[in-house]
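Support request from a user on the community tier.

User writes: "When I paste my structure tokens into the form, the page sometimes reloads and wipes my input. The last time it worked, I copied everything first. Here is what I submitted, just in case something in the input itself triggers the reload:"
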């Protein structure tokens, strides 16, 4: 059976025409012609609701980290290694979720599934609870399943709201780099599943994929003969002919500010010439208000600050402050598209040529048009999305926690803004990097998104490789990866860069973004300046080498030289 399915995928027998799609919009479900009747088994699409059962049974607990060793315990026989809830959901790890189900009392497990709309006549086993259900004892009506996923996005869990956030992050990751990455759409939360064949074929399988967008519109695709990954591929093929999003997002762009700092204190000073309303009345000109969870400030010119870090940022827009379970605060600014692009150019390319600033602004608009990058905001202000400083001041980061101001950047003028908007309406890059090293990479190689195209850099050839070397000590690696590192290896799997980290009890396989982020927590954001080309054991650690700075995908900003000394600047780009 596995060979047959592999052949189907390779020869292209599976197409959009083979897919049945249910749609949910504005509370109404539209079923496709010829859809099977009655409740159906949907495989791994059950897993998010299993998490709610675990949260109810373990109030206040963090989701566990577990080691998937593969074999018969998981669909991925080599094993996923050590992983937490977000990555387990992105990769739909059977081993992780079976252990999760085994830790939930049967009645609570059954109750959570029934609350989500599933039908079951007895307490499910852990395997049945995660969708490994050849007897199809756990089923659901397609319309009920779409409604359950739409509800998952908008209604908090009590208890377990923090875990719901991780579930949403896992569904977003599934669409960008996980089992649903064939969708090539970061504008959705997604999950795939493989069930016993809906037509009863012995040993056959059917593939499922569900997506939900930011407006709560949902789609459920069924590939009667196939797998969940193939269903995602077919759904993407069916959407390929749809109109692409315009160059501008909605009238407001929501930006999560100070996203890397996890502040416990925030303040906002009104720089407008008049009082500005908010959730606690008006804030007068020049007045400062300490922000707490639930505070909202209406449209104005605000100097927001993190007093503990002596960091300030000026933005034109409205502000919303919320709290996290760990006591830190989350600040989201709602700004105009022009204000956002202005703040990105000010941060990423303050001294670049006019032509390069125009190209970067257009790329930023195309990047926004792809869709939100976060569950509660379109983008953040760090290099996860784009370095954004609003109206300034610009800062340098000599270390991961200490900002040093470098003055206010010059704004984009009216003529340049018009050129940016016109350019964004034409095809072009939507990602950028600080220096390509003379050898740009594809998005597929860096993130596994499926886009294998490589944009030639007009600025650099092989003679400008920008080589770099880093010596990562055993002690720093142990802190970064959570255990003594026995070996590091760069591996290319299906054309995708991976860093295999061998720990005492498992091997973790990390994409560039994940490896970059984990190392940055211990060292700095220049610890892995780009996807490395080689790694070897060296005295007391590992020597890692590469070239270029940033992820090396899309528009190269290498005309700007400020990234030459990584330790003295903000981290390289990696959207």
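"...and here is what came back when it finally went through:"
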């Amino acid at each position: 059976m596995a060979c047959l399915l592999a052949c189907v995928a390779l020869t292209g027998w599976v197409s959009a025409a083979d897919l049945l799609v249910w749609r949910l919009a504005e509370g109404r479900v539209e079923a496709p012609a010829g859809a099977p009747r009655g409740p159906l088994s949907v495989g791994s699409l059950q897993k998010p609701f299993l998490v709610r059962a675990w949260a109810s049974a373990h109030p206040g607990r963090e989701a566990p980290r577990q080691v998937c060793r593969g074999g018969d315990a998981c669909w991925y026989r080599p094993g996923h290694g050590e992983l937490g809830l977000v990555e387990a959901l992105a990769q739909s790890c059977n081993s992780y979720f079976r252990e999760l189900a085994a830790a939930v009392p049967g009645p609570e497990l059954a109750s959570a599934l029934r609350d989500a709309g599933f039908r079951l006549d007895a307490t499910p086993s852990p395997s049945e609870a995660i969708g490994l259900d050849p007897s199809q004892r756990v089923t659901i009506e397609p319309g009920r399943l779409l409604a359950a996923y739409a509800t998952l996005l908008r209604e908090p869990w009590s208890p377990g709201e923090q875990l719901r956030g991780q579930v949403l992050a896992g569904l977003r990751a599934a669409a960008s780099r996980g089992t649903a990455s064939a969708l090539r759409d970061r504008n959705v939360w997604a999950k795939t599943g493989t069930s016993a064949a809906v037509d009863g074929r012995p040993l056959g399988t059917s593939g499922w994929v569900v997506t939900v967008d930011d407006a709560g519109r949902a789609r459920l695709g069924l590939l009667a003969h196939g797998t969940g990954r193939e269903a995602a591929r077919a759904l993407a093929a069916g959407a390929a002919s749809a109109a692409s999003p315009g160059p501008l997002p909605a009238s407001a762009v929501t930006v999560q500010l100070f996203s890397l700092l996890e502040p416990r204190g925030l303040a906002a000073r009104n720089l407008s010439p008049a009082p500005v309303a908010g959730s606690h009345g008006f804030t007068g000109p020049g007045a400062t208000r300490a922000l707490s969870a639930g505070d909202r400030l209406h449209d104005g010119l605000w100097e927001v600050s993190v007093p503990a870090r002596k960091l300030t940022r000026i933005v034109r827009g409205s502000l919303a402050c919320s709290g996290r379970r760990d006591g830190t605060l989350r600040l989201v600014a709602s700004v105009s598209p022009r204000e956002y692009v202005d703040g990105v150019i000010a941060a990423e390319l303050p001294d670049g040529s006019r032509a390069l600033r125009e190209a970067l602004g257009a790329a930023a608009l195309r990047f926004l048009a792809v869709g939100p990058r976060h569950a509660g905001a379109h983008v953040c202000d760090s290099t996860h999305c784009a370095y954004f400083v609003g109206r300034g001041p610009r800062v340098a980061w000599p270390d991961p926690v200490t900002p040093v101001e470098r003055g206010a950047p010059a704004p984009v003028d009216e003529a340049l803004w018009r050129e940016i908007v016109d350019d964004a309406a034409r095809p072009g890059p939507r990602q950028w990097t600080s220096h390509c090293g003379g050898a740009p990479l594809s998005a597929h190689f860096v993130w596994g998104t499926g886009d294998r195209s490589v944009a030639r850099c007009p600025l650099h050839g092989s003679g400008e490789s920008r080589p770099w070397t880093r010596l990562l000590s055993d002690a720093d690696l142990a802190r970064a990866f959570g255990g003594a590192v026995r070996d590091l290896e760069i591996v290319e799997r299906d054309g995708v860069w991976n860093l295999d980290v061998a720990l005492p009890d498992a091997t973790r396989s990390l994409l560039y973004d994940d490896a970059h982020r984990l190392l940055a927590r211990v060292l700095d954001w220049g610890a892995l300046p780009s996807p490395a080309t080689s790694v070897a054991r060296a005295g007391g650690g590992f020597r890692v080498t590469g070239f270029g700075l940033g992820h090396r995908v899309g528009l190269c900003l290498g005309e700007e030289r400020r990234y030459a000394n990584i330790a003295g600047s903000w981290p390289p780009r990696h959207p």
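Agent notes: The reload is a front-end session timeout and is unrelated to the input. The CA atoms of residues 106 and 125 lie 8 Å apart. The longest helix spans residues 354-370. Escalated to web team.
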